[in-house]
What does this fold into?
Amino acid sequence: MDLAGKLEIAGKTDPGKIREHNEDKIGEEVELGAIILADGMGGYHGGEVASAIAVNTILNHLHEHLPAVRCGTRDKQTGVGMEAVVAREAILRANREILAASEAQPQFRGMGTTIVLALFYDNRVAVAHVGDSRMYRLRQGRLDTVTRDHTLLQELVDRGLYSEEEARESLNKNLVTRALGVESEVLIDVQENVAEVGDTYLLCSDGLNDMIDDQEILDAFEQDGPDLQTIADGLVDRAIAAGGRDNVSVVLARVLEPFPAPPKTWYEKVSGYFVNQ
It folds into this structure.
């Protein structure tokens, strides 16, 4: 479904103060209701290559397969919208493409990337992610982390071996336990949540949340808003001012109007009845 006019989207990416190259890649397609961010890793520009392959492959896959999805249809096994299934398949395809590029070009072997993809449909948002790139949601003045980092440090926090405060000061916070382009099989976390008018969703690389904490992220929304691009610029500027030790990237999406699935036609209702008998 075309979400032009239903979503407002803005983004910014910056190499930061120390890195020579920007290995982050962001993308958006408002007509598809998609925003995406990847944080690449690997020598000899491999990180840049991996993140670009991921974003381009996923957006191409969505363009190819989303138009065939009837908005409002659900996957019988998981109960999520079929759009979320397409999102997962797109990420799996990106994983295969990165592996193929690594095998074809030895200088890029070992490259990989995180990924976080948000897809809006039927008054819902599906988020699929691998690695430590995050999604946040701002709703009625409250900022919540939607995703869970796939890092060794997060696993230690989950086991009670580190507090959140200790984790933030750790030097090993960026050891990811999942990434695209590393193995032939990759575990993707996919969740689906209700999206409300006024919600603002933030995708970010760890170059943001490693430099500023959640309160500072919330401050950017409150002090730099309401213009979405100004907020995106302010978030990146804050991270760079705090040290800018890594590439910093953000993508923001704000829900402007409801976007329910269109009502089923008489034929669809009747044919659906017989299919389910």
About this structure: The chain has a mean pLDDT of 92.
